Amino acid sequence: MFPSMFLLMFSGLAPAQAAESDSFEMAASVQALPTTELDSGWWPAEGAVRVRTVLFAEGIADIEIEGDSVVEETGQGGLHRLEAGDGGGNLDLSLLITASLYLSLDVAGYTWEDVLHEESVEYDVGDSFETLAFTDDGGVEMNLPMDPVEVFSIDQGIIPMVDVVVSGTLTPDASVLVETDSIETSEGAFTASNQTVSTEGGSIQLDASGSLGAFVSLVVQGHAEVCITWVDCYGDFNYDFPLDPVEHTETFDYESADVSHTVMQASGEASGGEDGESVKASGCSTVSGGVSQSTPLVLLFVSLFGLAARRR
After folding, report:
1. Is the C or the N end of the chain the one with fewer CB within 10 Å?
2. What is the DSSP letter of 286?
């Protein structure tokens, strides 16, 4: 009898530890590339037939991170940590490019210089990642190659007896760096993975900020030729315009997210009761250090157990 009672009472002294998790999502829409003009200049610099391209490019990035808010009760309060969720994160980049082709002609008494054609192309590319993209962890860098698109395919007369044949293909390429500078609560800030913050639990609001760095390169390649009826064809050359790359960095704030956890009450209390009031936990109350006030009773049972053993 005494051994059983002793084990029962002693087992109740170990502080219980529990971890609970609540998932969250945080999103932001960021200007990855402000409207930017890119001018190839005339090619060739001099000649009877010349071409030039002018591009206007702009881009928007939609970023989303998913994670789990985990609070663990330690017996001395709560510890809060953030983990990347199963869905990880996602980046969607929308890039709008408007390409204009100019032609300059000065041959056999014919002169002409103007915009020959204009075309807009929209690219939608994206990628996923597996972390919360903390800056102190190096963030997340993604390469986003895009398929070439034919933006110019021209075979037309511009003035009587003068026909133009021009083709052009646009090939964009982008790389994006996403960094989450910090995710903050009213109790502290997370700036890297595997960090913990002391918490009282309850309802917690997550506020996060970060930055996005975009690097976009654009190449236009094609062929140009001008033919004058009964005279001759001119130009008949290939052109290759590797335009200056565009770099842009934008800071942003994620939309806030709310998570909910059990309130870490003072020792001896548990949340609940009517009207949300705390109620006394069942059994004996506790004092600081996690030692139960029933300790003298336990010592009494230990003494009785030892006495019984000596009398056998």
Report:
1. C
2. B
CA distances to 54, 96, 150, 169, 296 from 120, rounded to whole Å, are: 12, 7, 11, 12, 83
pTM: 0.77
The H-or-E segment that residue 8 falls in is helix 2-11
Comparing CA positions, the residue from 101, 136, 97 lying closest to residue 120 is 97
Phi-psi region of 28 (alpha: psi -120 to 50; beta: other; left: phi over 0): beta
Residue 235 tokens, joined: 């130009």
Q: What is the mean pLDDT of residues 101-105?
A: 96
Buried b (16+ CB within 10 A) or exposed e, 116-149: bbebebebebeeebebbbbbeeebbebebebeeb
Which residues does residue 246 pair with via DSSP β-bridges, in sequence order?
216
3-state secondary structure at position 145 = strand
- Give dist(CA 83, CA 67) in Å, integer: 5
The per-residue DSSP string of 91-133 comes to EEEEEEEEEEEEEEEEETTEEEEEEEEEEEEEEEEEEEESS--
Closest to 212 measured CA to CA, from 238, 179, 187:
179
Tokens of 144: 């986003």
Mean pLDDT of 133-137: 97
Residue 76 confidence (pLDDT): 81
